[in-house]
Every structure is written in C-alpha cells, then in structure tokens.
Amino acid sequence: MIASASRVERFNAAHRLHNPDWSDEKNESFYGLCNNPNYHGHNYKLIVKITGEVDSESGYLIDLKVLKNIIRNEVTDKFDHRNLNLDVPDFKDLIPTAENIAYVIWHKINNQIEDHLNLHITLYETDRNFIEYDGK
Amino acid sequence: MIASASRVERFNAAHRLHNPDWSDEKNESFYGLCNNPNYHGHNYKLIVKITGEVDSESGYLIDLKVLKNIIRNEVTDKFDHRNLNLDVPDFKDLIPTAENIAYVIWHKINNQIEDHLNLHITLYETDRNFIEYDGK
Amino acid sequence: MIASASRVERFNAAHRLHNPDWSDEKNESFYGLCNNPNYHGHNYKLIVKITGEVDSESGYLIDLKVLKNIIRNEVTDKFDHRNLNLDVPDFKDLIPTAENIAYVIWHKINNQIEDHLNLHITLYETDRNFIEYDGK
Amino acid sequence: MIASASRVERFNAAHRLHNPDWSDEKNESFYGLCNNPNYHGHNYKLIVKITGEVDSESGYLIDLKVLKNIIRNEVTDKFDHRNLNLDVPDFKDLIPTAENIAYVIWHKINNQIEDHLNLHITLYETDRNFIEYDGK
Amino acid sequence: MIASASRVERFNAAHRLHNPDWSDEKNESFYGLCNNPNYHGHNYKLIVKITGEVDSESGYLIDLKVLKNIIRNEVTDKFDHRNLNLDVPDFKDLIPTAENIAYVIWHKINNQIEDHLNLHITLYETDRNFIEYDGK
Amino acid sequence: MIASASRVERFNAAHRLHNPDWSDEKNESFYGLCNNPNYHGHNYKLIVKITGEVDSESGYLIDLKVLKNIIRNEVTDKFDHRNLNLDVPDFKDLIPTAENIAYVIWHKINNQIEDHLNLHITLYETDRNFIEYDGK
C-alpha cells in the first residue's frame, strides 16, 4: 500500500525581496512593495507531504510525531520570528521569494528522511498565494 | 528548479443548469434544484496553478501580481456579479456546470500565459463540491 | 448556568438589489454590480445562536438536532437554490440585502423557539462581508 | 474532456491504536497517547475525488448528489458516531490508523463507482494531519 | 484601554452522552447516536477570551504565552487523547455535553487568572456546533 | 432595526516588540522571540464591525463598498508590506503589540464614520491569537 501522509506547520517571519545585482529602480519596479528596505512579514503555512509504503505492522507510513519534530528542528525553530534575510544563513545569497524558501525547506527536510520516501512541499505565503515544490 | 505557483480568486454569480435538448421533466429530474428557472447562485472560489521553471535571477516562477491581473481581466471582471447563462457569452450554448465553467476558465487563462507553462484549475462551487481541470 | 449554543447552516441563492421607488440610474449608481437585472448569487453561511438556561438534567441548552430541523424547515428548505426576489414571498416587497435577509430569518426562527430563549443571527454573504441581527 | 470532481464529507468517531501482537509497553511507547485503552476521538474530514471523462450532454463528470449518497451509504452512516475498533467490522483485525481508514474507505467507494473512473481519497484526522490514498 | 485577547487551542477526545437516572430507551431516544455505549469522538476547538485593562507599559492585556500555558496545564494536557467519561474526573458525575465541558473549562481557567479579568469560553464540538459560556 | 455589518481585510507587515525604557535583558525576557532586533512579521486579518440603524429605504446599514474604501485608505494602504515600527508614524512612540495596533486602527476608522455608528475591531495576529477593541 502506497500512500501520502502530510503535516501542517506554521512560522511567522520578516523578509525583503531585493536582487543586489539590479539597480534600486529595477528592484522597486519588479518587486513592488515586497522590495521595502525596512522589510515586511508573513504568517507562512507549510504542508509537508511524504509519499511511500505503509508499514503493515504499525499501520503508519511515517510517525507524524517524528515528522513534526523534523519540521520543527529543521525549519520552524530556525525561521519562526526571524528575519529571513538577516537571521537565516540559507538566504545570505538567495532572495527569499516563496519559491526559494520552498526550495530551502525541501532540501533541509529531505536530508532527514529515508531515501525511499518522496517529499512534496506546499508553502502558503498568504491565504491566496502559495508555492509547491517536490525536488525537481 | 521546477515548481508550481498558485493564486486564489473569487467571484459570485447566478446560474441555471438546463439542457435545451431535454424535456422539462428530464431537466428537473436530472439537475434537481439546480434546474430552477429563476436561477440560484454561488460564491465560486478559483485556484489557478502554474507549473514551470523558476527564474534563478528573480526567484519567481511567475509574478503573482501579473497572474492576479490575468485572472481579473479574463475571469472575475467578466463573471463576478453576473448571470452566467445570460450575461457571459461563453455559456450561450454551454451548460454552466462547474465542469464546464472550469473548462472555459482554463482556456481563457491558458491563452494569456507562455507556452512552456502548465496550467491547472480548481473551481469550488461550494465548500464541499469542487472540480479540477488541466486542459486534457 | 446561562450559555449560548450555535448551529451553522448554508444555502445558495440568487438575488438582485433594486429599489422600485428609485430610477434605474440611482439603482445602478447606488447598488453597483448588485443591481444586475439578470441576478447574481451567493453561498450564504448562517450562524444561529440561542442563549438561555442550560437544563441540568440533560446538560443541553437546546437539542441542536431540533435547532437544525427548525433552520431547515424555516430557512434553508425555502431559500436554498432559489431566487430570493422571485421565489421567496418574504422579499416580494423587501429588498434582499443581507441586512433584510437576516431580519427575515430572525423572525422565522424566533417564531419557532420558546419565549425565554434569546436569538442572534449572523449571515455571511461572502467570506468578507457579514451581518449580525438580534431582533432589536 | 478529462477532469476531477470532489465531494467533502465528515464523520466523528472514537478509536484506539493498539497492535495485539506487541507488548503493552511497545504499544504505549510507539503509539503514545493514541494507545489510550479508553479510546479518544476525532472529527474526520473526507475528500473523495473522482477522475474521468466529462459527459458532454449533461456537463457532469459524475452527479455529486449520487456521489454524496455513495459516501453516506458506504462510509458516514457506518462510521459516524461510532467506535471504529468496536463498532466497525472492517477494523476487527486492522489497526484504525488514518492510513488504514483511508484504505478501507477507498475500497468501499471504489466498489460502487464505474470501472473507468479513478478514485483518490484524502482523510484529515485533524486540521494538521492528513492521509491520501488512490488504490496503489 | 479595555480590550479582549483570545487564544485558540485544540484537543481530541472521546465521549458518550448518557444520563444514569434515565432508562436506556430514554437515553437512546434523547441523545441519539451520541448515546453509543462504545463512545465516539471529536476534535474540540477551544477559544479562550480574556477581557480587561491593557497595560500601557508593555502594551499587553495578558501575555498570550502565559495564557497558552494555563490552557495547556488546565485543559489540553488533561483532556487531549482522553475519554472524557472515563479518564477525566470532572465528568465522573457530569454528562460531558459541550455545554458542561465549557462549564468545566471556564472554572479551571478562571481559577488561574487574576480577579479583575473577565473570561469567555467558546467550545466548538464540530465546525457546525459550538457553545459559549462566560461564568453566569 | 439595529444590526451590525462587518468587513474583513488583510495586511502583511513586519514589527518588533521593544520597550525603550527597559533594559535589553528585560525586553528579551518579557517579549521573547517577538523582541528580535531584526524584526519578524505577520499576515494580519482585520474585521471591522459597524453597529447602527439599518436604512429602510436602501436596506443597508452602511455601504460595505464605502467601508472597504475607508479601511483601505486609513489602514491597509498605510500598513500593508510595511515595517510598523519604522514606516508607520503611529508607532514611533507606541509599541506595536496587537493591542496597540487595534487601538490605532479603531481611532483611524472611527474618525471616518458617522457619530451615531458604533465601531468594533477584531485583529488576528495569527490564526490562534487575536485582539478585540471597541473604543473603551
């Protein structure tokens, strides 16, 4: 039996979208309000989906308490109530768009799960805008 | 990096399900309350998902402000606070079931995005009933 | 022990806002898109709150199965999948704004509950617009 | 035109996770609070998604009133306000983890729909934990 | 400045509605499926609202981290993943209707907050049924 | 007829909780992660409720399009995608706790509505923490 198991977590962070290789004018015109030099912020909602074989003995695909701890250790403890640009080393040279945040989260979690499991990330920046990434 | 970016929009419209090739009895028996000749209505929720390559320079798959404007120009400005049967020419000869509304929306938006991007539509007619369509 | 017990129900209906004592121009300018002569529609969400003494023998303020049936008989069976202007006699001479719909619903339900209970209605026309009415 | 149509239903049930082949210590250490011998419970949310060809005559993939009745007859009438371990024969020899509940629901509904339709189940045990299963 | 500050928490529990002073027939006819002798369960959502003076120095009415800990110590650690009838002494002689659960929770939390603060409890048994209680 | 009409709006902002009259140690110990000198952020959800007489001619308590514009002019255009501490003059000498943000919003909106209307503000900082304020 192949199934997927998902866990929802949240973190609240500040960020700014700014490409240092572009002029200030281009940054402001391209990123709009998201380029505010004083930062703005979001309540990010993260859905981590694991796909794989269900263990017939326990009836679990993965223990969601274990997955919750992986997400907390790898993501929310590091991102929550932080400024993604200034406080999170992963975004030192990477613009913290929702796409790039999803990319970073995918790699952090994928390093902690077994190889035979597939990983899919959904990251809501707002209730109306969200990104999905599965490592491709 | 291949990812998906989604935008949620809403519109409120009246509609009636009625097949002019069927008798009134068959229409009423098949469509039930949805066949009411005086129309009824819904708050439709639309999720537009674009899949493609993320631009490494900007960190964006697609500028969601641009996608928001495409959805407003192509869909919500034309459907919102309208009677789909009477006010929207796309449904002159097409029954406005949620399936057919999703089909019309997919084609309207797909005409406005670049060819290398894939498009997937989710249309909620109510909180409990929804349709997905991706052009197949 | 005084408490409140609430039940959530939904109905989907078409309506049009139009004051027959006003010119077409005034109607269109005042009600905007809601004045569309061909109607538009909504998924209405209704919260019915009853306040009163909890019965110490049963531990119930009111049997919510009974309240559910009152709401269905008095409101949703009459409003759901209907055109409020054309199909519901209460709106023959009353403009079906959310305020007036809440007023009509309050009176219909208040007639069916015991005198010592207080009634409060919340009516969501959309996720972002809602009305409250308690009989005053 | 190939599309998907989904219906959301809910049921409220008690359950306990316990593997009779394991010692009490192993059960308690593995399942944690879910192993409580006196049971605990959940409001389960179920999303049933059907994928197939849309009928061009009716504009329907499947009549969602029919799908609603299948779900009620096969699942919610049997599971709602029940103890899954004691009252539902499917779990006599199967631990009612969310994975196994999704497996049972998938087979019950798949037996009732036409062969050319594909079925996908999403089962929320809580707002933050959910399982998906499509028969593989 | 007088304001209200609210915190949302959740717990998942089994329960059964049964009045030992009534016959089995009366219990079954009055409580319906909720009288199932093998129990059923819910994901309860609890909103704890505190009303009082905002401290002008800190800008806080109450530290919501403190309120969160009070709720966890007094309510969720004792109710979550429990059978309310069998595992929670408060319901030894009190039928665990949502009304009575709200009453018990109000008294547990009110004992832990300062006298000048007012307390209001909202308890959702399902998304569609909820109780409010403020100590009267 | 006295009723209430509510409108929901959202804004996304960065902030930091820091009392300049306190030592860094006291700030960090009292505000915890919210004291991060590099800021963090939230998707704030704002519910603006107006209570007053319904106009019997139009059936409106207040035109919600007018209320929407007041909220956008007074609040969301000034707060959205901003750093509340650095970009919004109202918080130059006022700590932007949710309580104080609600206070500022209440006064900004109350200045724009007619005297006979009552105003109540609900401000969600997260899905689980929210403040209510009505001018007292």
Please explain how this structure is put together.
The structure is a homohexamer of 136-residue chains. With 136 residues, the first copy, chain A, is an alpha+beta fold. The first copy, chain A, has a single domain, classed as Tetrahydropterin Synthase, Chain A (2-Layer Sandwich). Chain A is 30% helix and 31% strand. The first copy, chain A, has 4 helices and 5 strands. In chain A, strands 3-1-2-4-5 form a 5-stranded mixed β-sheet. In chain A, strand 4 (118-124) and strand 5 (129-133) form a beta hairpin. The longest helix of chain A is centred in the middle third of the chain and has 16 residues, at 64-79. The mean pLDDT of chain A is 98.
Shape estimate of chain A: elongated
Number of helices in the DSSP assignment of chain A:
4
Mean pLDDT of chain A comes to 98
What is the count of structural domains of chain A? 1
- Total strands of chain A: the figure is 5
Main pleated sheet of chain A: 5 strands, mixed
Strand order of the largest sheet of chain A: 3-1-2-4-5
Largest interface (CB < 8 Å): A-F, 22 and 22 residues
- Which percent range describes the beta-strand content of chain A? 25-35%
**Low-confidence residue ranges of chain A:** none
